[in-house]
Amino acid sequence: MLYQRILNLFYQCLNSLDNAIPVQKLKIAYIGIKGLPSKGGAERVVEALVKRISVNHQVTVYCSSHYTPPNFKLQNVELIRIKGLPGKVFRMLTVDLIAAFHAILFRKYDLIHLHNIEASIVLPILRFKYPVIATAHGRFTKGNKWNSFAVLLLNSIEYLFAQLASASTSVSAIDARYLSMKCHRIVHYIPNGIDDEEKVDLAESKKILKNSGLNIDTDEYFVFVAGRIIPLKGAHVLLGAFQQLGSTKKLIIIGDLSQAHPAYSRMLKSMSNENVIYIPFISNEYALFGIIKMCSLFIMPSISEGMSMALLEAAALGVPIICSNIHANKAVLDNDHALFFKVDDSNDLKSKIEWAMQNPEIVKAMGLKAQNWVRGKFSWDNLAQQYDELYHSFA
Fold first, then answer.
1. How many Å apart are CA 347 and CA 123, to the nearest integer?
2. CATH numbers and ranges of domains, the chain
3. pLDDT digits (tens, 9 = 90+) for 264-273
4. pTM of this prediction?
5. Per-residue pLDDT tens for 287-302?
6. Residue 153 CA to its chain's centroid (Å)
């Protein structure tokens, strides 16, 4: 009995010593994103990640001054704004190059977390001095902002991404497997995540909707959200389906049309009637979540995705979802959680919308199942811990 008490006391002392050992505080720089606050995509991922990582580590994020407002601040995070050359392609290329040389010549970090495969062009510079974790947020597909030659060139950068980084990760399980096989080196799968409890600003949401011409007391609406409304997001597929419905419900399209080709923007407008409402990108994410929370259907018609934050966030809000049957969407949800339609098929999407309108209780129940599913599987707190462990294994 006395022996057991002494042994227990010994274990308690060991545990108290373990708890007393401080976590190693690392100096980490993030390179490869446009900046903060996020408007979607990789920026949304980095914003969620650094909010958690900066609690225990010293964090610096390199940003484009074109994207990041001069008065924006993020608690515990240093933002270094860089003025790149004008133009969509050259701006981020020069921002990443300047960031890499700044990190090499003027700073001393423990490691760099590089985001987006195209940013891997600066990996040879960074690896002179630092371990680098590189994260892919999707691969290059013709028909997005890349032409055939650009896709060929950028696909060659995938070898830099996988071979030169200390460790490579992808937010897509399918991309991780593909890149691992193509480049003959393991690319780890770490998905995107959601907050354990999403917050909504319904007052601001209703204000935005009212200012956009929606009668919030009587109008029901479907919603489509994208950071950038480009062809691969499938807005034209959704409008093709909506045209055929002849419904009095509204369709709200939220996102930045400015980065789309002018011809594509004109085509979307020509396919739209008085029931289609366009709302520019909403920087207040809680207001955006409120608009999604109040919708009848969240529709995700993407033709290609890495792993959609918009889909994850809609699922976390518990709303009914219809989405294309691409691998990236089916990696997040299954047939118990959402209705899937054939990718790039407006007729099939129309049929799924009609079925959802005829069976509102069933799709509401599916939305609640999706909510429980993603909150259990895609918690940002858990995913940030995975990155933290990866950081410590190389720093």
1. 45
2. 26-193+379-394 (3.40.50.2000), 202-377 (3.40.50.2000)
3. 999 999 999 9
4. 0.84
5. 999 999 999 999 999 9
6. 24
